[in-house]
Amino acid sequence: MTPSTRSRVLPALVGLVVVSFVTLRLVAETTIVKPEEVGLSTERLTRITDMVKRHIAAGEISGGVTLVARQGKIAHFEATGATDIESKKPMVKDAVFRIASMTKPVVGVAVMMMMEEGKLRITDPVSKYIPSFKDLKVAVEEPRQGAQAASGPPKYYAVPSAREITIRDLLTHVSGLGSGPMSSASIGGAEIARKPTDALSDYVPRLGKSVLEFQPGTRWTYSPGAGFDTLGHIVEITSGQPLDAFLRQRVFEPLGMRDVSFCPPPALESRLVTAYLLDPGGQVRKDSNPNRMQSKVYFSGGGGLVATAEDYAKFAQMLLNGGELNGKRLLSPRTVAYMASVHAPDTLPGRTPGEGYGLSVRVVNNAAASGARVSDGSFGWSGAFGTHFWVDPKESLIAIMMIQTPARDMRPEFENAVMQAIIR
Predict the structure, then answer these.
(1) Which pLDDT tens digit goes with each residue over 63-120?
(2) Contact at 8 Å (CB) between 249 and 328?
(3) Fewer CB within 10 Å, N side or C side of the chain?
């Protein structure tokens, strides 16, 4: 072989080796089968992609990645549209998405791990770990008068809380912490507001100075950030590790979740899908770090993670398997069942009929009453930028939808498109 020939052949061989390695890695990590092998219809699964294309054509999303697995095998895994409207860069299966509140079930699993190790009980008052939460007050709104009746922040006075808030209250969104206009206004005040240099250990104790939106346990109202940021700090206290280190060592590495992060390094950031918001004129580009969620110092348990669809599918499959994946056990089956049980019933004010709430997850306890197209006992959650997942133990199925525009109508449409593809 002449030097000139070698200079042409060697790069080609190296490229072949790299491609082969990537292919082998995908084969080793992911079992992809013909849908009919796991009781799904190839023809009917195309309706998932058709649904995504409709929303792209309507200008509601730039694109997305969808994944469906049954009996532990992937039957549908598609990338559709673009990662960025302006550049028209094609969507890819390993695109990275801000999963926002789909971070919450990950933190929920971390809390369950600490519970299994005897380091906490979910009935424990939060003040056992964060003393500043001992004497929380509850806001009572004053009647609106004059110009304030139509607009402006609510005025309120504070009364003592009837009882302390517990870890269970935070996991089920019945604590009242950061769960409405009055509590959010108090959290946003200068005395409490999060600073750019804060870690969880700096900020969360200050939340003990805030007011609760309602008496604990009396209603269900979502806590977008404060509740699960507090849980993240409790994991730090009980484990002795920063939240990012705990999740990396105890959850992500054992499950083989390589592309999940609180603050994506350049290699992941280059695959990060552009986030958009919808307004009457179409999609409006968000900045590169919407809501300041991605941080090197503040690891938001309420919504800080980025991930790929395949990475999150490993997490969901672990839950479907009763706490284990590929020989790595995070939780016992009984604990996963406990996590996915109804802890906040659908009769509680604020809940949807037929949908209770478990420990960090929505639980469909009566699909007919809720109008959901999933099986009774299914559980999961969604993210502010449109991401959505659920685990269906009855059908041995998981489904993931990753988009970066809050097109909420797509969630029930995705559920319907997946469920109608089950043929046995």
Answers:
(1) 999 999 999 999 999 999 999 999 999 999 999 999 999 999 999 999 999 999 999 9
(2) no
(3) C
> Would you identify the CATH topology of the domain 32-108+242-419?
Beta-lactamase (3.40.710)
Sequence-separated (6 or more) residues with CB below 8 Å from residue 260: 252, 305, 306, 307, 308, 311, 312
Task: Give Cα 281 to chain centroid, integer Å.
Answer: 28
CATH (one of 3.90.70, 3.30.360, 1.10.3470, 1.20.58) for 120-239: 1.20.58
Indicate the pTM of the whole model. 0.91
pLDDT tens digits, one per residue of 381-417: 999 999 999 999 999 999 999 999 998 789 999 999 9
Helix, strand and coil in the chain, % to nearest 5: 40, 20, 40
Q: How far apart are CA 164 and CA 215, in angstroms?
A: 9
- Tokens 């550049």 belong to residue: 87
